[in-house]
Specification:
about 150 residues; alpha+beta; Nuclear Transport Factor 2, Chain: A; four-stranded antiparallel sheet; three-stranded antiparallel sheet; 3 helices; about 30% helix; globular
């Protein structure tokens, strides 16, 4: 089933030049947040792993997507909408981005039609800590759930 709303993130993230700005970092954090759910639709955790930097929360999210793909679980429902709330430059190579997300809800469905996981909709805020890898763009270092 095609997702009903939200926006599909592109396959390549913004903010990946060696001198990426804070604005590009914020756009990258929004892109990454969308992939936390879109990975189930795309049936791939590759972007979550590729653009993470020693991020345990990213590994957990990617593992959950890989497990769903291996179990032939599919996605039904709404993608994630995002809004950048605030950015804080901690250093030229590190920043925190507060990303508000919203979803009308989704269900992960097993091959036999049974529900594997369901989210009835809502919103929350993630604080995403980004680091700029040497000679590369931004990478996610940590995801903290605020609400």
């Amino acid at each position: 089933m095609v997702p009903t709303d939200g926006s599909k993130p592109g396959s390549k993230p913004p903010g990946q030049s060696a001198n990426a700005s804070s604005e590009a970092g914020a756009a990258f954090a929004s892109w990454y947040t969308k992939w936390l759910i879109y990975g189930y639709v795309a049936r791939s955790s590759k972007p979550l792993r590729l653009y993470a930097d020693e991020c345990p929360q990213c590994d957990v999210a990617a593992d959950q997507i890989d497990d769903a793909v291996a179990s032939d679980i599919h996605f039904e429902g709404s993608l994630t909408k995002t809004l950048i709330v605030q950015t804080s430059n901690l250093r030229s190579t590190r920043m925190d981005v507060a990303v508000k997300w919203q979803s009308a809800g989704f269900t992960l469905v097993k091959p036999d039609g049974q529900t594997s996981r369901q989210f009835d909709g809502g919103s929350g805020v993630y604080i995403i800590t980004l680091v700029r890898a040497k000679g590369q763009g931004w990478r996610v270092h940590q995801i903290a759930i605020v609400s």
